[in-house]
Amino acid sequence: MEHLIEGYRIYRERRWPELRALHRRLAERGQSPRVLVIACSDSRVDPATIFNAGPGELFVIRNVANLAPPCEGTEGYHGVSAAIEFAVLHLKVETVLVLGHAQCGGVAAALSDRPRDPASFLDRWIGLLDPAKSRIAGQSGDPQSALEHESIRVTLENLGTFPFVRQAIAERGLQLVGARYGVADGSLELLDPQTGAFNPIV
Known about the structure:
Elements: H1 2-29, E1 35-40, H2 47-50, E2 58-63, H3 79-90, E3 95-101, H4 105-111, H5 121-126, H6 130-136, H7 143-159, H8 163-172, E4 175-181, E5 188-191, E6 198-200
Parallel strand pairs: 1-2, 1-3, 3-4
Antiparallel strand pairs: 4-5, 5-6
Helix pairs in contact: 6-7
């Protein structure tokens, strides 16, 4: 905890003076981010850092393997779905970006042949990757990379199961975008909705 306190002190001394006016405006006017990012909880993949974004610019959901479940009306606590609803209906974001990444631990867990524990929150969560895992079965190449890419496609499909997402697409042109970040080299690939291929940003 000490390193966090020290980090805060450095922030207050060095960065807060230049951010004070921005934060005052955000406090008075509220937030109006244009982009919802669904990213992984992995500590190496920070959307604000990757996209050079400041306070108020991104609304971010982070979880294991950057997943969004399909729309479900079941009882329970649907935190990811609630955050998507808030971003689309209340913040009226213009874009939803699903940001996957290389060396994803959640994807590696999904690829593992170990038995899943029905009492494990993590094992149930990575079960959302099973459709993507089925799609890449038998493909040549690196299964880790293949599942990282395919999981982004499946999550985008899951987003389309939410009625309010479909409505926002139809009525105001909400964009659903997929991307994958390279942890080792800082590369970024964007999913082409026409071809289904991931193309590098250069």
